[in-house]
Specification:
It is built from ten helices and 13 strands. It is of the alpha/beta class. The protein binds adenosine-5'-triphosphate (ATP). Adenosine-5'-triphosphate binds next to strand 2 and helix 1. It comes from Streptomyces coffeae.
């Protein structure tokens, strides 16, 4: 596992990471989320010993990275897909890594086939597309058959087939009992891939929880009802003591409503419904609500003189208490 304890990193006056503590466990895919500049890449670089923390410590299977013998056999990482010597072929790039980590040559062929680059193994990597470079980076991460894998934005540049492939790969790796730690800004993809989430903002920990708990705690859940008899629906709800707010398309929304109870109530009043559906916000909505106050970079709305105000949406929203 990866254990991070009281980690801080300051560049000049900029605190990139600020007192972070969390543990990434084996057997599940852990998503690492945060707005731009939140400190995700800095944290991952420190885990790999590529940067030194200002304070705090990181342990990989109980040891600091520098103490690992043949580190590629313990932890494989994809941080920057384009950080490859462009004059080298995919095969030679991987062979150099293999030789310096006591990995047999045969494994190079294995990982090239695994990521689908077997047919271009002898081509120089400078001609590779972003998606091909990502696949080469994933091959490098897998080279030492490590128990811990870290991927920084691995789906960046991949086509839909590639995205599907890496989603299954990460889930398979976790299913084999490995530790999989992955950052991405693609929330829909993260929702399908990760079981657990670590969310940071401005270098600080905002959440360390399961995917389902994160969505439940940081989003609104409600039941939507729609009927051709709008006024009768409103009256039946009010008579039943149910607080409902008008939604779009002539619907009503009942926060934390029970669809069974609502359906029975409507049946008792012989009211025709065109919709009775439970609505749960997406990971994207939950993420935006949680991090609204921790977003550093805001776009200027077209034609506006001022930038969009920080935390404009969701600023007054509070996470629900755990029951
Ligand atoms: N080498 C560096 N020198 C100075 N400042 C840095 C350096 N690396 C990162 N930073 C700063 O540290 C903060 C965190 O950056 P980091 O790249 O870790 O964030 P991130 O969460 O990975 O962002 P993104 O999602 O945009 O990739 C930012 O303010 C960034 O400008």
């Amino acid at each position: 596992m990866i254990e991070i304890e009281g980690l801080s990193k300051t560049y000049g006056d900029t605190p990139a990471v600020d007192g972070l503590s969390f543990t990434v466990r084996p057997g599940v895919v852990t998503g690492f989320l945060g707005p731009n500049g939140a400190g995700k890449s800095t944290t991952m670089r420190i885990v790999l010993g590529l940067d030194h923390p200002t304070s705090g410590r990181v342990r990989i299977d109980g040891q600091p990275y520098e103490r690992l013998t043949d580190p590629l056999r313990h932890v494989g990482a994809l941080l920057d897909a384009k950080a490859v010597h462009g004059g080298r072929s995919a095969f030679h790039h991987l062979l150099c890594l293999a030789q310096s980590n006591g990995v047999p040559r045969s494994r190079v062929h294995e990982v090239l086939d695994l990521v689908g680059l077997g047919s271009v193994a002898r081509k120089r990597s400078k001609g590779f597309s972003l998606g091909m470079s990502q696949r080469l980076g994933i091959a490098a991460a897998m080279l030492g058959d490590p128990s811990i894998l870290m991927f920084d934005e691995p789906v960046n540049g991949l086509d839909p087939e590639g995205i599907h492939w890496i989603r299954n790969l990460m889930r398979d790796l976790a299913g084999q009992g490995r530790t999989v730690f992955v950052s991405s800004h693609l929330m829909s993809e993260m929702a399908l891939t990760a079981d657990h989430l670590v969310v940071i903002g401005q270098g600080r920990l905002l959440a360390d929880t399961s995917m389902s708990d994160f969505i439940t705690q940081h989003s609104r859940s409600y039941v939507r009802l729609r009927s051709p008899e709008y006024q009768r629906l409103s009256d039946v709800l009010a008579a039943g003591g149910i607080t409902a707010v008008p939604g779009s398309d002539g619907s009503f929304e009942v926060d934390d409503g029970d669809p069974v109870r609502l359906g029975q109530l409507m049946a008792d009043h012989r009211l025709v419904l065109h919709e009775l559906s439970r609505q749960q916000a997406s990971l994207e909505e939950a993420f935006m609500r949680l991090t609204a106050g921790a977003v550093e970079y805001h776009a200027h709305p077209a034609g506006a003189d001022e930038p969009a105000p920080a935390a404009a949406w969701g600023a007054d929203w509070r996470p629900r208490k755990e029951s």
